[in-house]
């Protein structure tokens, strides 16, 4: 019978074979070593030997002894019989004839294998499950599976399914209650009342206080910035951020806060005191820092787009408007001065060489000649126009837009004073002067006179000095404090992005240096990190080996240059590649593609999801955010409907149906309670693992090559997390979904970033935050993801970085030995890697990569910290020098191995194919993203990523079956053609219209393949 959270099928599959083990599992659990064979050979008859082997390996695989040892998949029996030299595997049937023999074998195996009874290990298991439930908050099914694994690893015989399920459920419930009680106990009576007040709806309001406070800013404006700071101040005033919650596992705190942020206030009110107030406390703690994050996100985009960028645009527009006047004035002056030069210069006869005096001898005569061309009044007007329109000679290129920027002061007036009150800023020594100036701005605002002694004149660089100290409308001895405000804000904005100025009460805009491993914390993890990344504690030998590798590679590749027709060097010694010729597509490949695509079953997208769920159980990853058990029948149907709604960007309307699973109320409840980024990722991991086990996917690749690239989405609604880029988004803002795909076509993870920033800032974070699958070894990106610092960090992290270099001729190659002769590369290798600089900073380099590797700090923050306005810090420069070794090796390999270039191109094309399929799926609302907040964007694109992987898995499995069928039918199937099949075919999948969510009966778990000669109408 099913127990609590387990379905009938899951309960039946417990401690039993669920289909045939994979080849990997056969080799791991069912291989008979010498000790096994010695035990088995003592049995007299072949059926006893085979039965004993089946009991032995089944106990190893399942953790139980079978009541019916003949109930073993044929694949297992055949594998064991082959190892034992038993020709007739059907002999196993005779093993069950004597019950006493089976029982005797079980007793012998228990003693020999030292299996423990469950009762002896139950107490230890409870402690382990409690610790795991307390720290991870995993759902009951995940804990149940983990408990089964724990028992198997310790050779504990599995108990009945009901016994284990009830143990897991009770321990998990106790851990949850302890979590709620611990947080509840931190609150005073007054704080409990404050938190409960968040669930009330004030008179005249339409939403609760919690609903109001958890909604961040969306519009980019000065008043909205003021509101965002007021919201942060209001949340901070609750005082919940000051409570010590360090004893609570961060993951559990985050899950509770997510429930508080996403759940309905009415649902929260139904919970008991401890659970309700614990959830509200976690939510308030989260919102305390999140509100500051939101405010600074808004400030950053406000300064960048509404102030700096707009001032530059409006200045450019004004210049265009004044250009005709400038041109006319310039032409008049040019004509006048041409007359001056022509009439006042001595004339030289080019044939005779005679010199004649100037045409005019007096000033009056010269003016007469000028006025024949340009009247004096027009000339005076032209001079006046140039003085009016042209900037002063000693101005810089920024003065015009900075002058325009000062006129935007009403935008910043509402929030400047509030900014330094609400946000607890800190700064590095470099940022301290700017932070001090920022804090002084409220004292200057509104005053009629401000003297130079009251401001920090050292911050007045370039045209700011003139605009602040020498503004024509100011009295002598005073400064234009409005111009000074924008001078400080411009510097503050730049340093905030570099984290030279940071917010102590913010998680996103905090000081990354404070998060770096240091002192005892670094010393504790240092050996593990170095062993994991295969890096030495001392740099000397390691750098010498890298230098020798680079030197040897230069010489080898240079020696093959005369025979290499793929590369040429121009007159400046710069390297150029010949264009890769497209691989020819033989008729056999065309025929195979046509046959395989024709054989694919015609399905609706919901059926794809439901069928994939039936294969993988990925729907079990969608656990309730409340921490409770799932009490919804056929939850997988509702989940599939929501994946279609979000993944296709069509909303609820097309998926609503008459059955309970598809009614609006249930869709909305499941959406808020079960669908979130964490459950998308858990489900995705299951799909990735399942697809990797299919033979066809293994033909495509080993999962060790991956690419990272961005997919752009227009965001037509007001949002702080959408940024402008006319090339991709037209006149609207947009966001980028930076996603990773391996060479088996599985999406390994993704990240949503505002606008179109350089991918290089995020590549490492995407790699370290993948959903599942093997850890890639080679990383392919486009040129936008490239920088020398990123090359260095990726190499240190153990990845082979292979970016496409579109601007290859402009890339500098690097050498270590200045005197070495590298033949044709002599001019191209004009840069020098400074090994001494790398060695001098080696310990700090290790600490940086160790902090990223352990997750102590985001790579994005580190990269911003290592670079200042395009110039690296000394530590950043050392990492860049290390990266230049790998970069030069990469270029040399590109030059020497056309196959390497083709592999990179193929992986990039694979990513483009996935994006094309994603566009086809995400077709609703013109493919635009209508989410205002980053969390919403991540959730919706998480749904899209999961649907993509489900389609790829569906296609891979059916294409694998089609290829096998074609081979069996004698079709001309060549391995090299199979490797070029694409899992992104989609003509057989209907993604439009109103959908059906009823899965037909599937004997054997799959649909029949179509006839390869069938038409679409058949």
TrEMBL record:
Signal peptide segment: none
InterPro entries per record: DUF4158, Tn3-like_transpos, Tn3_Tnp_DDE_dom
Domain named DUF4158: residues: 5-171
Domain of life according to the entry: Bacteria
Domain Tn3 transposase DDE: 607-995
Sorted UniProt keywords: DNA recombination, DNA-binding, Transposition
Family from the record: Belongs to the transposase 7 family.
Protein name, per record: Tn3 family transposase
Taxonomic source organism: Streptomyces lonegramiae
